[in-house]
Every structure is written in structure tokens, then in C-alpha cells.
Design goal:
The chain is mainly α. It folds into two domains: about 1-65, no CATH class; about 70-130. About 70% of the residues lie in helices and about 0% in strands. The chain is built from eight helices and no strands. The protein has helices spanning about 10-20, 25-35, 40-55, 60-65, 70-80, 85-95, 100-115, 120-135. The longest helix has 18 residues, at about 120-135. The radius of gyration is 24 Å and the shape is elongated.
Length: about 140
Amino acid sequence: MVHDRIDLPTDEELSAYLDEGLSPGAMVRIEGWIREDPSVRDRLLNLSEKSRANPNLVGAIWRKNRLSCPDRSKLGLYLLGGAEGGEGQYIQFHVETVGCRICLANLDDLRSSQSEPDHRSSRQLKIFQSSIGRISHDPGR
């Protein structure tokens, strides 16, 4: 099934697809076009070649380094409700409207780490408890 020309993805959408910068639904939609329409495949290959030929373009650098993504600590603050004002609004827009898959994955990871018990602290406590007797009974002290 070949799509109407109106439905075809733009070059910007295809570039974002290459950078994995689209929401899962948009990625699936474009993958359907790629499978079904040879002209879309050709455009995608052409964009991919151009991107590899000019890796120093501002847009390529911006996408590659994910400069629009908040860092993990800011995502954690947002998750805890501490990101206020413009910063909180930007993060909300970035994850809910843009649907950044990297940031959504980070948020999921942060959420799951909140609900898991802290095994590291438990292990550190056991090590401390097992060595406290040796430290306090050290004859060299």
C-alpha cells in the first residue's frame, strides 16, 4: 500500500527517526512508510548519507549530544515535584509532548529505583557491623 503524498513524512521527521528522537507511535508510523514506500526508503538513505558526510552541522551535533534533554538529576527533581517554574514546564513539555524516549526511559528507571529497596545501604551496614568488632579490639590502638 503506497500512501498519499500528503501523508508522507517530512525530511525533518525522517531525520528525527534516524536520531531516534520521535515518540514510539511516530517511530512505528515512519517504519510503516519505510517498509511500504520505496521513495521514503530512498529519502531516508539520502538523509543518512548526508548526516554521515556532515557530522559537524549544528543540528547534527545538537541531536547527537541530546542538548535539549535535561540531565538525570533534573529529571529526578521533576519526578519528586521539585522542578518549578520554567524548568518544570520545559521538562513536562519535553517528556509529555515531545515524548523524548531517552528521557522517558530515564524517568522510568528513576521511578523503579524509588520503589526498590536500597540493597547497597544494606550491604554497607553489614560490612560495617562485621568490621566494627575488629576495629574496637585492635591491640595496636
